[in-house]
Amino acid sequence: MIELSVMEHGREFPQLMRTLLDQFERETRLKVNLRILTWENAWSELVRVGLYSDGPQVSEIGSTWLSEFVGMGALRPFSPQDLGRNISAEQYLPSAWASALVSGRAGTANTMWAVPWVADTRIVYCRPEIFAQAGVDPQRAFQTPQTLLEAGAQFLAAGMSNPIVLPTRFTHITLHNIASWLWGSGGDFLTPDCRQAQFDTPAARAAFHAYFDLIKYMSPATRGLDDHGMHAAYRRGEAAAVLTGTWLQHSLPAEVAAATQHALPPGMPYLGGSQLVIWKHVRQPGPALALVHYLTSAEVQRHFVKSTGLLPNRLDVLSQDTFQQDPFLQRTAEGLKQARAFPVFPLWGLVEKRLTEAFTTIWTEILSTPEADVHAIVDKHIFVAARRLNATFATY
Questions:
Q1: What is the pLDDT of residues 178-237, one digit of tens each?
Q2: DSSP assignment of 95-139, as one string?
Q3: What's the Cα-to-Cα distance from 68 to each of 20, 46, 58, 372, rounded to whole Å?
Q4: Contact at 8 Å (CB) between 328 and 121?
Q5: What are residue 280's phi and psi, to 5 degrees?
Q6: SS3 of 22, please?
């Protein structure tokens, strides 16, 4: 019996997984017990698996979690023989493949610790009829951070607001969004050796300024929203655009989806998603490896796209007719091929935590301060976050 744990990916996902696993069982005569975890509790549950060497043999994990599980010594690496010809770098998005290699720790830099599974990126959903009322071309508006600010100014000149709605409460989406502004400016979060913060440089801070300056063009009613609130505002037509994950497309009412166009975020899109890992406590890896090969196959990835809208990391699936004929998937595939992943090294989880906290504090202070000096607030908290992280890096 193989136990497999995967994340929650919508209402249809458990049934689709069970159908696919039934096919795997018929082909291999191996039984699979499926366990669905929520994103809210998965981290703590999987840490227990790693600590106590007890639980699933194969698990889906968030791509940014990998380095911490490697650091715990909880995973079984994949050898070239394990991967064979069916799983190779040439078949995957380069950033997704690189995210399965952990850097910054002796002996692990060239070791494959996971296999990319589900891809995630950010895309702009926009209502062209609202942009037209403001006299703005939505495709031009999202070319650069500066053209987006110019579009905001045109909205105000037309007596309108909300060219885009952003989450201003605690959420990792802010980090995923703002990465596009940062990378597009030529900046980065860390130095190439991952030994020092680089998000406090002038170029990086200018990118952050441009992102947080968008508050000037958001109405009071949309200035205090979380992820769900901004999605609801877009559905109701209270915002001309929203920048978020690709999952929103499948939850839009039919009439809203029909009235929606898509654009890539200004800069370089963020690439996230999930991976499949085999835990170190697995004594006989053959069945677990067979399951990983099956779940990462092009056939299974095609089923995901068709049935749940989950996105593949495999280039052969992204090049199929489905992605060329559907405008949303075509734009999504374009974004995935340009997208960049966060660095994978043992302290990235701490970097993500510190920046998410800093961005939340920045939004809180901006929203609570009349006539706020956005740039001064951003700089203050970014410098603090960089100083704290550099102190940690110096002792690592």
A1: 999 999 999 999 999 899 999 999 999 999 999 999 999 999 999 999 999 999 999 999
A2: HHHHTTB--SSTTTTT-B--EEEEEEEEEEEE-HHHHHHHT--HH
A3: 30, 11, 17, 38
A4: no
A5: -65, -25
A6: helix
Q: Identify whether the C-beta of residue 225 lies closer than 8 Å to the C-beta of residue 233.
A: yes
Among 16, 14, 5, smallest CA distance to 305 is for 16
Dist. CA 35–CA 21, nearest whole Å: 12
pLDDT over 60 (residue 8): yes
Of 70, 173, 61, give the one whose Cα is nearest residue 117: 61
- Contact call for residues 360 and 174 (beta carbons, < 8 A): yes
The SS3 call for residue 310 is coil
Domains of the chain: 2-120+272-341 (3.40.190.10), 128-259+347-395 (3.40.190.10)
Residue 390 parent element (H or E): helix 374-395
Q: What is the pLDDT of residues 98-152, one digit of tens each?
A: 999 875 444 455 789 999 999 999 999 999 999 999 999 998 999 999 999 999 9
Q: Any idea what the Cα angle at residue 239 is, between residues 241 and 179, rounded to 5°?
A: 40
d(CA 276, CA 274): 7
Q: Tell how strand 241-245 and strand 2-7 pair up.
A: unpaired
The pair of structure tokens assigned to 136 is 């703005």
Cα torsion through 294, 10, 359, 139, rounded to 10: 90
Six-digit token string for 357: 């906290």
Which residue carries 């000096």 as its tokens? 373
3-state class (DSSP) for residue 350: helix
Q: Is 90 exposed, middle or buried (0-12, 13-18, 19+ CB in 10 A)?
A: exposed
Give the DSSP H/E element, type plus range, for residue 7. Answer: strand 2-7
Name residues whose C-beta falls within 8 Å of residue 284's C-beta, 6 or more positions apart in sequence. Answer: none
Task: Read off the pLDDT of each residue in 248-272 and give the average, rounded to a whole number.
Answer: 94
3-state secondary structure of 316: helix
pTM above 0.90, yes or no: yes
| Burial status of residue 122 (CB atoms within 10 A of its CB: 0-12, 13-18, 19 or more) | buried
Single out the residue of 44, 353, 311, 368 nearest to residue 171, CA to CA.
Answer: 353
Beta pairing, strands 75-76 & 115-126: unpaired
Give the whole-angstrom CA distance, residue 214 versus residue 216: 5
Report pLDDT for 106. 43
Q: What is the mean pLDDT of the chain?
A: 93
